[in-house]
Amino acid sequence: MSLMHDKQDESVSRLIEEFLTARATRKPSPHTLAAYRRDLRTVATLAGETVTPPLPLDDLTVEALSPRVMRAAFARFAAARAVASVHRAWSTWNSFFTFLVAEAVVPGNPMPAVGRPRTPLPQPKPLRGEDTPEELLAAVAREDGRQRDPWPQRDLAVLALALCAGLRLSELLALRVGSVVGREGERRVDVAGKGGRPRAVPIEVGLERVLAEYLESRRRRFGARSVRPDSPLLVDRRGEALRRGGLQYLVESCYRRAGIGDRVPRGARLHALRHTFATRLAEDGASAAEIMRLLGHASLASSQTYIEVTAGQQRDAVRANRTNRALAALLPADER
After folding, report:
1. I need a surface site. Which of 2, 60, 157, 214 has the fewest CB within 10 A?
2. Structural domains in the chain?
3. What element of type H or E holds 69?
4. Sorted alphabetically, which InterPro entries does this protein's record hold (predicted)?
5. CA gap 336, 332 in Å, rounded
6. d(Cα 51, Cα 149) in Å, to the nearest integer?
7. Residue 2: its pLDDT value, please?
8. DSSP code string of 270-312
9. Residues forming the active site
């Protein structure tokens, strides 16, 4: 222990507040700071109940937080909580002990001796409904008289790049006119991927024509200089590069015009288009390695989730088949 701290200073509740004060310089949101405090105090309270004799949080000192005590406290904490909550609390406590080691309050961090659950991979959130992507594209391709300055060619190009090439929001914004390369019939789009991982995504004749018509409409609006190779590929109605908020608003407005807002998963508005691209790849037999390359995933596990979801959907469809249900009804109850 550091000679700079007396016994009172080594109380866990006091050190938690010191840690949170230090974290505040990183400008976390109030919600994040509250989550840190809740995870730290909850597990510390459980740790106090684990020691002999049991101690209330205000009397618990950091000396008592041995690997054995922390394992027992986290076992109780994990019993009634989701994996993601346990993982978040473990990470918070790991940061807390790293802070205490740096401050010379404790000689080491016990958290590596405490089991940490794996973070579950996020599940894909494609558009709901078998024909929803086609309905969306068809609706957006039509000029809407309610718009002050309709530009269906541009809107269709945005949706098609996400639905037919699986691009992320940041990747769409980073595209240049010159990102679309290759001979006719062999076109591809060069993508500046997440984490600095570039990739090339082949584009078929449909997307190729959509992009050509969009660029021609842009040339008519803003002149030939607007489609130079180094120009942003996606622009607003003034010819300026689309920004994050503008792109999100554009996609939301397309959903409204198509009347499919109720088929877009919550929390995955633009990303639902990318997830739809990946899910259909899996449905059509693409391997996890192929999906990984096309979507620019860092690990094969992320790509595998699309195949697993598709396999699960196929199983559900077979299970729901009326003939299978009728066959199962013929069996004795103990054999179903």
Report:
1. 2
2. 8-113 (1.10.150.130), 132-320 (1.10.443.10)
3. helix 67-79
4. CB, DNA_brk_join_enz, Integrase-like_cat_sf, Integrase_catalytic, Integrase_recombinase_N, Integrase_SAM-like_N, Tyrosine_recombinase_XerCD
5. 7
6. 69
7. 39
8. THHHHHHHHHHHHHTT--HHHHHHHHT-SSHHHHHHHHHHHHH
9. 168, 194, 271, 274, 297, 306
